[in-house]
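Researcher: Please translate sequence to structure tokens.
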Amino acid sequence: MRYLLNASFFFLSCPTLKQGIMKKLLLLFIASITIVLSSYSQDEFAKLQAEFEKMMNDPKNIYGKNKAVGKYYDIRGFKMYVEVYGQGKPLLFIHGNGGSINNFTKQIPYFAQKYKVIIADSRAQGKSADAADSISYEMMADDYAALLEVMKIDSAYIVGWSDGGINGLLMAIRHPEKVKKLAITGANLRPDTTAVPQEIWDMVMPMYSGLKDKADKNEMEKGGYKLLKLLVENPHIPLSDLQKISCPTLVIGGDHDVIKEEHTMDIYKNIPNAYLWILPNSGHSTPIVYANEFNSKVDAFFKKPYRKIEGTGRFF
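Model: Translation complete:
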């Protein structure tokens, strides 16, 4: 739910899932796209959808399948697929649940002109296969910290979208030395209605229950269930842990996100050195629908020193 549009990317970018985790999943995710972009007119939505489909299916879109730069790293018991673009200060992108590298197709070219862009398929997603029965956000945060270590990168700027935002928060909590600055969009701390609207739960839970109760899951269904279980039952990040985050953080959300705006505000309020950016007329897919604004705003945040605004500074 904190990723619903990202999950639809999964079906477009992962050949095995194109054939199945269940047609209901695909129908749900298509429906979620409509919700995310419901404030657009029909013509605008149709145009955005057509552009997205064209971008994902374009043979020239090499992201996630670029043999010239792609590499596997042995990370904590699995092989993590990674691509690197550009030169400069390291910038790590982390995709959402069920996503993959190409979800950031609109970010990679922009940031690769200024940074060393590091982007991977998270554990059990994309090309980073993992046959284990379970997965956790803490596990993935530790994976990314280990990746930076293996790549001999002391610390990096981090952008996390949806579940990637959760991973980013946990990296800043568990591995603060690895995070220079953090930008997150559409992240949540809890798997309940204080964070995610009931209407989203109403769409996801029947599908989750159906897979949970199925005794003879095939391999694709096992993989799908593992990721659904992750988002339905997790995360559990206390506000007190956010207060330990020392790096400057840009907290982003849409005013009609699948994450409640008051929950995004809670995240912002509990990180000591944070900015808040709520995009108007926006759902969960801020890096796609508002790519230009997203890229320039995040870039400026990384480049400029964090400014503590207090006292008389609040008047200007």
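Researcher: Any highlights?
Model: The chain has a mean pLDDT of 88.
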